Amino acid sequence: MIRSITMCINHSSRVRKLGLDNPRVHFKSGYNVLIGPNGAGKSTVLKAIASCPFCRLEKTCDTDEIKYITTETLNPLVGGAFASREEMVQGIRAMFQSHGQGVLDSLRSQSHASETVVLIDSPETGQDHENSLLIHEGLVRMSKRYQVIVATNSLIFMRSGNVIDLGDGTLASLVEATSTLVDKFDAAARR
User: Fold this and answer.
1) Euclidean distance between CA atoms 140 and 126, whole angstroms
2) Domains and CATH numbers, the chain
3) Cβ contacts of residue 14 below 8 Å, gap of 6+?
4) Residue 118 in contact with residue 146, Cβ under 8 Å?
5) What is the DSSP string of 95-125?
6) Residue ranges in the chain assigned as alpha helix (H)
7) How far apart (Å, rounded) are the C-alpha atoms in residues 48 and 135?
8) String of b and e for 151-161 (b: at least 16 CB within 10 Å)?
9) What does the pLDDT read at residue 93?
10) N or C: which end of the chain has fewer CB within 10 A?
11) 8 Å CB contact between 19 and 12
12) Are 73 and 87 in contact (CB under 8 A)?
């Protein structure tokens, strides 16, 4: 499990809220959700955890393994050769599905080896409401076995998680904007 990451200067300068004097993000076991406006640094934090040799991770165990999943790696149609028969079958099936269904299919068939931490960037991409709910349920179930850290701005994926706001009042802003949008839809429907 990752307790925290102290970001290197390169990454901390790209996360608006952190600044250079306190470049640390703390996590809890289970399900963690990074939120913030576009450009706040959600993806940057995940990339830093996954691969930066200069950022310092505080882990509960030195042998903790990390799996980093993005919508690009989930999309079976993203170019190149397939690494396994499973990927090839998924790629062929994806030719006859929507992007969202292909991503959902790929998430369902993810194999988990020795990782103890799973990072997922924007799991809501290309998903309708029902599929987003299914993916969220799966991630919450997964968080009982692994630490899951998700970067999102979807209210669906913020439920049941340790919310880490890389913006300023992001959750309240999203709830207010969603409420305003619903009110406008309701008003238009009554006309």
Assistant:
1) 20
2) 2-190 (3.40.50.300)
3) 41, 44
4) yes
5) TTS-HHHHHHHHHHT----S-SEEEEE-TTT
6) 9-12, 42-51, 71-74, 85-94, 99-108, 129-142, 155-158, 170-190
7) 24
8) bbbbebbbeeb
9) 59
10) C
11) yes
12) no
Both tokens of residue 57?
């991770």
Six token digits for residue 78:
């993203």
Looking up tokens 């993000």 gives 25
**DSSP type of residue 52:** -
**pLDDT, tens digit, 9 for 90 and up, residues 110-130:** 656 678 899 999 988 778 888
Which tens digits make up the pLDDT trace of 16-28?
787 667 789 999 9
pLDDT: which is higher, 135 or 106: 135
Residue 6 φ then ψ, to 5°: -100, 115
- Predicted local confidence at residue 45, as pLDDT: 96
Other residues' Cβ atoms within 10 Å of the Cβ of residue 30: 17
Residue for token digits 């809501």? 124
Question: 16 and 39 in contact (C-beta within 8 Å)?
Answer: yes
Measure the CA–CA gap between 87 and 94, rounded to whole angstroms.
10
Q: What angle do CA 48, 7, 38 make, to 5 degrees?
A: 65
